[in-house]
Structure formats: C-alpha cells, structure tokens
Amino acid sequence: MSERQESAARNRGAQTREAAQRVALRLFTEQGYEATSLRQIADEVGINKASLYYYFDGKEAIVQSLLDQRGDEVEELLAWVGEQPPSPTLITDAVLRWVDSFTAEKLQGIRFLAANPLLLAGSTPKGEEPRVGAGLSRLADDLSHHLPERTPETVVLLRMALLSINAAVQAAAATDAPDEAVIAAARRAARVMTGTLIAGDAEERR
User: Are 123 and 51 contained in the same domain?
Assistant: First the structure.
C-alpha cells in the first residue's frame, strides 16, 4: 500500500470513528443508553457490528472516547493559557474559547451525562474527579492568578463563567430554544461575568 493509500485509509477510519460517536450520542440521548445497541449504531453508520468493534469494544468505550475528547480540549486550552503573556483580556479570551468550543453535538453530550450521572461516575477511577472537571478546575485556578483582585467572590464568579454553558443547557431544558440560542446565551453570560470581574474591581479601586 502506498503512502497516499495509507493516508486515505487513516482518514476513512477517522471519519468512521467520528460518525460512530455522533450516531451513538444521538441515539443515547434520544432513546436512552440501555435501549441502544451496538448493532443499531453500526447499522446507522452503515457498517457491520464487527467493523464497529474495530473502533470500540462496547458502548462504554464510546462514552469514554467522548469524555477523552473533552478532556483533551480542556488540556489544550490549559496549555494555550500557559503560553499567553499577562493581559487584562486573558480571562475573557480563555473563557470564551471554552464556550465557543461547544457545538450542538457537545450540548447533547452535556444532556446525556446529566441524565446518566452513574455512567459518568463509573467511567472515573474511584476517588478521582472526572478528567474534564479536573481540567476545568485547574483552568480556573490558573486564570484566578490573573484576576485584578483575587477574592473568594471573584474566584467563584470566574468558575461560574467557565460553567456558563452547563447552566445554559439546564436553563433551556424547559424551553424550545435551539442549540444555537443556548450557546449564544452562554457566551453572553460568560462575557458579562468576566467583564464584571475586571470592571467591578476597577470600580472598587476608584
């Protein structure tokens, strides 16, 4: 097999894996985790069950892969923050990068995990915090050192800004708001909260 053929095969494999993740998450959300079978996922992706096993050895592995993706993303954001020079806008920039990383599919992930807390707990080693949660905690700690005035109140407000997407998903549950509106609302709330951290502290120092 030539190098070009190997590259094409890798790309097809990655696309199939991503398709399986998307289909699985949709089915888990629409009809429930227990009610969804690997065969159903494979059929919707357009492959046989044996081929799906090449990528995932079970439904738990699919869930874990989705969690790992978000864990990777928050760790990439942590690395980005560490590379930035001190700036009055760094907190806002970092928080909005996190909010803007969400898509409609990732909102499905939040809803799915909120409806299946035991599944999330089961995917995390005993005594440890889920990887995404641990990463966000580290991100909040890192960003808190850039606060104009670091107080218990401003630290809590910073963490609220990082979790604005989760709050928006929960608030929208009883509405017919489309996912784009949920993400836009989360972004506006995050911008207001991070702006308050800077503007409020500046006002207090006058």
Answer: no
